[in-house]
Amino acid sequence: MTRPDRPVTEDDLQAWVDDLLSPERRRTVETWLDTNPDTRTRVTAWRAERDLLRATMDAELRQPVPARFNITRLKRRRARRFSMPQMAASVVLALSLGLSGGWMLRDREVPLGLASVEQEATIVHDAGKGSTISSGNVAQLAAWGGRTLGRPVRPPDLSAAGYQLTGGQLVTTDHGPACVFFYKEGNGNRITLFVRPMYGHDMTAPMRPMRHMPGYIWAQDGLGISMVADTPDSDLHRLANHARDMMGEAG
Amino acid sequence: MNDGDDSRLQNAIPALRRYARVLTRDPHQADDLVQDCLERALTRMHQVRCRPDLRPWLFTIAHNLNVSHWRRLRRLVSFMETTDPEPMQEAGQIPHLEWKEVAGAFERLSDDHRQVLILVGVEGLEYATVADILGVPVGTVMSRLSRARTALHRLVEHEELPMLRRVK
């Protein structure tokens, strides 16, 4: 350590202003300042200016913090952004393993309510591309899905609009099991109908367009349902309404 | 990340915004910098678990972001204007002319000088901490501090008024 009585330096003067001197060193500096009145005037002015600047700028600390800097909200937004690929991975895995896997419920933040149904339906629609699920298993799936989901799930008949039911699958999502039904029409256009129970949020919700895919999403009687198409189709809204009506009757 | 980390981060935001304003000289740019800074901070909270004062860490992130990106950006839109800093209005009990002079003088200092004055003088951080934030040796912090205080005092005392007179 340096000796307390070493010559006073410029650094000591700064530390005097900032009150960062040890008690012994401060005594030495004070004594030195007594014999150097010009320097004392200078450092006293520095200290006064520091205090004024601090007081002035402390007013900024009292300004309200904008909502965009709410940490809880920022974290939720991050979780939403990052959950998509993870969720995709879990759904795709379920499709490739068939039904052998357990539910992959995770302890992490994911969007609630319809927003989560939307994400899952988007992933499943993409994952279902090229799958060769036969129509034979649909009845079995509907029964099984009905048991797993805790209610009968009957895929609506969309043949009047030219869409034939081609298959179905039970998949896992972050919110438990879901039923997926695949439809195809003559030109090869595909529709996916994604159905899963809602848990507390959005038990019933009006239909709205999906954000990132041509599709519609709604909730009825505690089931979250999403109809997704490959390409935008002016008929899709009507078709979704039709499906909702039929599923309402079936329930 | 637990609730304690969250609330310490939340509580540090006013100081972070203030520092960002000193860095960018513009309230809007400052808040964009704060946003970037918080998003980066949230991915690295494990680095500071249980550290009581998050300011030095946040200031370091803000400083580095500002150096790497914001400074370049700011050059493009430089000198649009230095808006009158709003907080000055409510500086209450301080003698009016004095704080206005100090605040005005502070705005006219170089970026380096303003940074060292806010970190040391206003935030009250230790010299070694400030050196870490700025990525310079402590000796540099000390000499900058000395020059910054000299420059501020000179401006407050109107020591360069003769220059202004000549403009006429």
Indicate the topology.
The complex is a heterodimer of chains A (251) and B (168).
Chain A: H1 10-17, H2 23-34, H3 37-61, H4 71-96, H5 113-127, H6 138-149, E1 163-173, E2 176-185, E3 190-197, E4 205-209, E5 215-220, E6 223-229, H7 236-250
Antiparallel strand pairs in A: 1-2, 2-3, 3-6, 4-5, 5-6
Helix pairs in contact in A: 1-3, 4-5
Chain B: H1 3-24, H2 27-43, H3 55-76, H4 96-107, H5 111-122, H6 127-134, H7 138-156, H8 161-167
Helix pairs in contact in B: 1-2, 1-3, 2-3, 3-6, 4-7, 5-7, 6-7
Give the terminus-to-terminus CA distance of chain B. 60 Å
In round numbers, the mean pLDDT of chain A is 75
What is the third-level CATH name, the topology of the largest domain in chain A?
Phosphorylase Kinase, domain 1
Count helical runs of chain A: 7
The biggest sheet of chain B amounts to: none
**Which term fits the overall shape of chain A?**
rod-shaped
Total strands of chain A: 6
Tell me, rounded to a whole number, the average pLDDT of chain B: 80
Second CATH tier, the architecture of the largest domain in chain A: 2-Layer Sandwich
The number of distinct helices of chain B, counting runs of at least 4 residues, comes to 8
CATH H-tier superfamily of the largest domain in chain A: MucB/RseB, C-terminal domain
Can you identify the CATH class of the largest domain in chain B? Mainly Alpha
Q: Structural class from helices and strands of chain B?
A: mainly alpha
User: Beta fraction of the residues of chain A?
Assistant: 15-25%
Distance between the termini of chain A: 83 Å
Percentage of residues in helical conformation of chain A? 40-55%
Structural class of chain A: alpha+beta
**Could you give a short account of the major beta sheet of chain A?**
6 strands, antiparallel
**Number of DSSP strand runs of chain B:** 0
Any low-confidence stretches of chain A, pLDDT <50, length ≥5?
A: 84-111
Task: Return the CATH topology of the largest domain in chain B.
Answer: Rna Polymerase Sigma Factor, Chain: A
